[in-house]
Amino acid sequence: MSGTLSEREQGRVETLQIVVRDETPFLPKVAFTLITLASMGGATFTGLGLGLDWLQIAARWLTLWSLALAGGFLTWRVCYLREREAEADQAAVDALNATALQRADQVGHWVAPIVWIGAGGALAVPQLDSQPVLKAALIAGSVVLSGVLIVGVRRGAVAIFGALVVVALLVGWAYTDAGAGWPGLVRLLHLTAFTLWLGGALWNIAVAMPAGRQHPVVDAVLAGANQLDRFRWVVRFALPTIIVTGLVMAWGYRGLPASWWITFPGVLIPLKVLAIVALVVVFITCPLFRHCSPVQGVCNLDDLDEK
Known about the structure:
Strand content: under 5%
Number of strands: 0
Order of helices and strands: HHHHHHHHHHH
Radius of gyration: 21 Å
Distance between the termini: 18 Å
Low-confidence stretches: none
Number of helices: 11
Mean pLDDT: 91
Shape: globular
């Protein structure tokens, strides 16, 4: 999808009435649910491998899930939302962004307590008992991140600081899970790709869609479409990264008998792969069925031309 309109196309759509559907598209919610379930399966398998009990596994998963929510969310704020959009009226862009940032602050207030509770995940991982400094840093990082979300993401400097805190936390958790060297790098890439997708999906569902509904004008549609397209490009890289890094991490189990792969916990690996395959299908079909947004043109600017 192109993020700009030619002069002829711009003139053609300036007077259009944008259609806004009453129902909220469900495919993005399906994708959000699938990647959450996939993360639960992966966290359970990894946690059992680390010798954790079920309560410890749940605490550790909540930590990583909350960091992903906040991290991808902040990435949209910092990287996809722009103060200016080419060929879009500045007043319309300002109005859309103001609504989006107000909504983002509200959503951030919902995510903040999840991140704060997730700070306790470091206390549930025995491997960190021998590394008190790292444990304290992971706990403190989540507490600081929850504070950033409480303050709000309206100011870019605050959002950038929060995003950097997430980066540091992901590095710390990747090291905790896989150590240094290439295993830690693979783990970091896996967590990063998961973060960019999950938190970005949260912004699209909870911020971009509601804000777009309130501004059904062509210039706002153009701005919203550009933001969504930036997220799509990231997902195009995040999806194969999740798949490849997941396969690399599972490579050590390739010699186990077939019976292991169809019984617990081995079955969690193929189940997670199936969830990722389902995500691929959703990612492909979402724009085909115009389920990226309830606002006409955000999924595909060509829909404006069809009017």
